[in-house]
Amino acid sequence: MTTPMAELISLLDAFDNLPRVRELREHAYRGLGDVVVDVGCGTGRAVGELAAAGTRAIGVDLDPGAIELARERWPAGEFHVGDATAIPLDDGSVTGYRADKLLHTLPEPELAVLEARRVLAPDGRAVLIGQDWDTWVIDSDDPELTRAIVHARADRVRSPRVARRHRNLLLDNGFTDVTVEVRTIVWTDAGCLPALADLGAPRAWLDDQAARARADRLFVALPFFLATGIRAD
Questions:
Q1: What are phi and psi of 163, to 5 degrees?
Q2: Which of 32, 104, 219, 221 would be a feasible disulfide site paired with 139, CB 3.0-4.6 Å?
Q3: pLDDT 10s per residue in the chain (233 long)?
Q4: Which residues are CB-neighbours of 194 under 8 A, at least 6 positions away?
Q5: Whether the Cβ atoms of residue 200 and residue 141 lie closer than 8 Å to each other
Q6: If DSSP codes are grouped into helix, strand and coil, which group holds residue 227?
Q7: For residues 59 and 36, what is the distance between their CA atoms, to the nearest angstrom?
């Protein structure tokens, strides 16, 4: 029997394997230096990829189960159970900090950004990646219902609009040379249907999206915001 955790991992793996998501991940690795901490690492894909490239890659996640699985999947990485606001690393001990799809889960994202500054060495780089949960772009014959579905899903998230605050969070918490860019993931096939099901939409709406996929008429776009900053001293 498939467990909810197994279903979640399968969904995340499918998303991470999308070509544009891979490109975004690889783009975000640039400039992180030779010792990188990935906070909210989940099952450790980014840590494994960084380690394979010769980086000392350290994954931190609050979920012991995720860390256990990460150690099995990516034995070249280093993994620790830990909180985003209390990373189990010394001050100034890393050259790069990465948080991907993390800050929206936190009630006070600014505390995580302050912690990023603490663990970064002078001139270390922080990278924040995430979606704005109010910004799903979905073609539908019922745009009002679609808007309501997206907003209702956003309301289930602790900090659903934090991605639009990435730049200011970095500027206000000890970072300089801050840049922001947007990379959009587009789906036009049934591979997106599990993600749409996670929105909690009515069955009739989901059936319509499935019919669109079968007819090659599905369109879903999800922008991701990538912000980088350098630790200021």
A1: -60, -35
A2: 219
A3: 455 666 667 777 788 888 888 999 999 999 999 999 999 999 999 999 999 999 999 999 999 999 999 999 999 999 999 999 999 999 999 999 999 999 999 999 999 999 999 999 999 999 999 999 999 999 999 999 999 999 999 999 999 999 999 999 999 999 999 999 999 999 999 999 989 999 999 999 999 999 999 999 999 999 999 999 999 98
A4: 11, 14
A5: no
A6: strand
A7: 9
Q: What is the DSSP letter of 61?
A: E
Amino acid identity, position 90: D
pTM (2 decimals)? 0.92
Residue 213: how many other CB atoms lie within 10 Å: 19
- Cβ pair 178, 228 in contact under 8 A: yes
What is the Rg, in whole angstroms, of the alpha carbon atoms belonging to the chain?
18
d(CA 35, CA 15): 26
Angle, CA of 198, 127 and 7, to the nearest 5°: 25
Three-class SS state of 221? strand
Cα separation, 6 vs 25, whole angstroms = 23
Q: Which tokens is 149 given? A: 């579905």
DSSP state letter for 105: G
Secondary structure element (H or E) that encloses residue 123, with its range: strand 120-131
